[in-house]
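FIELD: query
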Amino acid sequence: MGIGDELKTPVPPRFMVLMADWCNVFAGITLVISFSLIAGAFTFKWFKMEGTAHTVMQVTMCLEGVLWAVAAGFLTKINMIVNNAGLAVGQTIICFGGIFFAISGLYDGVPGKIISLHYVLAPDSNALFADACPYYGITCFMVATSMGLQGVWPLPKNKIVSPFWAVACFFIGAWTIGVIGLWGPTLMDGFVRYEDFEAPTDLYKQRTFAWAWIHIFQVIGAIFLTAGGIIFGVLEGNQGLMDGIFPFGGPSGEVESDDDYDSSDVWEAPAAGYFFQGERIISAVLEELRNRSVFESVDLLVFGGCSAGGRGALYNLDRVCSGLPAALRCRGFLDAAWWVRDEGALEQGAKEGLQLWGPSESLAPCLASAGQHAAHLCLFGPHFAPYVRTPFLVHEEQFDYFMLSKRGVQRPVILWSPEAWQLARDLQGQVKSTLPILSGRRDAAAYSATCTQHCFAESELFWRVRVQRRGPGFQSWSLEQLARSWLQETSPGPDLAGGVLIDDCFDPNCSSGCPFEPSPRDLLLFACLLLALLACCILLLLRRRWLLGRCRRRFRPERSPAPQMLGTSFGEADGLPPHAINSSNIDRTSLDQQEW
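FIELD: result
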């Protein structure tokens, strides 16, 4: 049990996790099969898209949509159980995307018939709704995978089997299919209409049909989607392909969190026969270093940790440093360890911890001052830090996503409700109002930016994020700069009070170097720019059509009016039998042309 142990986050039923992951994997496999058949028929011309080949293509195309929708439905429910609103929204979007793909496969939709933007949002008798559904489906996937990639961007990237690369594969696959396989050719055809064709075969001169090479990239995109599902399937799983898939669960299906195990906990219960391995590990390591005479060759030892480990380091800092040689300088580095009370899960866990276990002597001075009813507050940094004699540096973000999650607030920021915003502002106010208590100590330092992140020392944020302070020189500081200055016992600057550096900006992620997370204002600005760009494109296309119309009237004045493309009279005029062309489709068999 960690120091701030609280009631466990609900664990989703195992069958939901298994169903979601198997459906994701098989959806990717069926999509590879479908796209491979299309590429084989129309890109490499190994066979004709008819008979068994067409049936298998249509069935697998419909099945992959159903499987994506089922998988996303289970994942939506799973994320609702674990109270992750952001991922639940993303999976809901993917669920709709799967439904659109299923409709396209069920009704044998032909995306190539969406020859221009005109037919994307306004299907007619030439291009049906089922033909446009793949565009709707892939757009859902592109939006959802972009949201997911933004969420996992700060995670480690050094291992292929990791949440980052799983989401990255989904992102690459969706955008490859969307940009190259669907939206690219359609956008390049502008606003052409079926009525502009002089012959029915002109349809196959459009890029959506003529560019047969795009089917190869569709296969590549499907392979990436399948790889993403497989990576999630084997991620942290040691009991089979689909065990321990997701970031919220470990191999045994239990929830992993920062406070499930604390390597430096101060709790002991010798009367009950329990002990904490973390404390024995620390003692054993120090004894081994002492036996090897390591302390004789160094003049500085930094003892610290991240999150729950940082709290444990704070509680044990005096005990560890007091056992070292007097000539050895000992310092504490506490990353994301300044947890503030929330009158919720964290505080309830602290109360239960005091009731179940007897704390060690490390907390004794604080407990004596707090009294019986407020004893649990000694487990929070602002209440315990004044009793720590050893110099230390503490880092805590004003919008720490872990502490926000314990208050029921999940990323991304754009999905926050007014209640979530209020909870986030409350946390920001607590962090900014409690860290200055260290300003009276010349041997302590504090650093706080506004990122919606947790630990910094384990990522590039340690160097990248910078806090601005308006004062003499107007300097900006990274956590690395402050830590180096503090460890070298040099003054961090005249604008810092006692080494306490707190960013004054108000909004989440407004500190320089924070990972980008779009706010409602950013999305509104992006929408305005997108509309302006779309308006410019429309004007250019209209100008182009106007110029072409003038040229045609000038150089071909005697041209007879073009008959209707899809009418019976048009087919007869071109020498085609009446049954070769109907009112809603082109008989590709009679024309002997490709349909994708």
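FIELD: remark
The CA atoms of residues 237 and 528 lie 45 Å apart.
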